[in-house]
DNA sequence: CCTTGACCTTCCAGTCACGGGAAGGCCCAT
DNA sequence: ATGGGCCTTCCCGTGACTGGAAGGTCAAGG
């Protein structure tokens, strides 16, 4: 299987697949012509990576998860640990975004949005008069 | 005022201040020795930038906002437009993170997290059996 | 006067996870 | 043999910085 088929089967761009090989996440075979030859195992791994990335795991976390996946003697606690850290990071990011959103929404609703120059958004950015 | 004082007054790292000069957001004077000499105007702008960045605005948005701030003939509608776009982007990011969080939380709670190898997190990543 | 240490400067490289595009080889059908 | 569509590697660019090296400057103490 060539890279374009691997791409369409996994939904990952060919560029991404080459990158994943470059950083050692997958090791596809090579044909006599130098083309990558993807086996089912590689497709499987790529799909795994795509789903882990969609959950926001970093590439290094993905590497860890893939290693755990391939280790029959793993402890599920190790997997859970990685996932809990990721959950925590998502929660922190959510908190941050919610605060931004609250402040921004308040400013936006205070701004007339007409042709006059007076603007509470700019006033706030200039002096941060309001709370948050 | 030297860069370290500008840094402590604005809360921005000196590196960041130099970067902002490099990309043309601020234009501090220079002393005879080549040191940057920050005036109140520069400090003010840097604080503005720091707050805009804290609301998640991109550097290019910050450039636009700063230009509007310095334009007495601006229309507040223009400011509001930029802010609304930012609000929209935050909302999209929030949605994405909430979905990730929901999936991840479900997987985490399904995982025993003990010494056994069976792990619903890995099973899901491997095959995406669940919904979503 | 000399040294020390804390400033300051510029420049280069690295981050993260790719994406764009060039230059060139390969494959298959006409 | 030619065309078009694959494939390859290689290098640069992204955003918004951060780290660090190499070297100039300044003020205080001996």
Automatic annotation (TrEMBL), chains A, B:
Highest taxon of source: Bacteria
GO cellular component, one term: cytoplasm
Keyword match Endoplasmic reticulum: no
Chain segments annotated as coiled-coil in the UniProt record: 80-107
Cross-referenced InterPro entries: CueR, DNA-bd_dom_put_sf, MerR-type_HTH_dom, MerR_fam, Tscrpt_reg_MerR_DNA-bd
Pfam families named among the record's database cross-references: MerR, MerR-DNA-bind
Organism lineage: Bacteria, Pseudomonadati, Pseudomonadota, Alphaproteobacteria, Rhodobacterales
Alphabetic keyword roster: Coiled coil, Cytoplasm, DNA-binding, Transcription, Transcription regulation
HTH merR-type domain location: 1-68
A GO MF term: DNA-binding transcription factor activity
Subcellular locations according to the entry: Cytoplasm
Official protein name in the record: Cu(I)-responsive transcriptional regulator
PROSITE patterns the record matches: HTH_MERR_2 (PS50937)
Alphabetical GO biological process terms: positive regulation of DNA-templated transcription
Membrane spanning stretches: none
């Amino acid at each position: 299987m060539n890279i374009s088929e691997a791409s369409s089967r996994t939904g990952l761009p060919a560029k991404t697949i080459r990158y994943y090989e470059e950083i050692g996440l997958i090791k596809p075979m090579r044909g006599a012509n130098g083309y990558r030859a993807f086996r089912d195992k590689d497709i499987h791994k790529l799909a795994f990576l795509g789903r882990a990335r969609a959950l926001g795991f970093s590439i290094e976390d993905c590497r860890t998860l893939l290693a755990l996946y391939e280790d029959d003697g793993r402890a599920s606690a190790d997997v859970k640990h990685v996932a809990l850290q990721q959950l925590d990071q998502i929660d922190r990011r959510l908190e941050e975004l919610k605060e931004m959103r609250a402040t921004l929404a308040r400013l936006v609703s205070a701004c007339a949005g007409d042709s006059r120059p007076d603007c509470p958004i700019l006033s706030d950015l200039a002096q941060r008069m309001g709370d948050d």
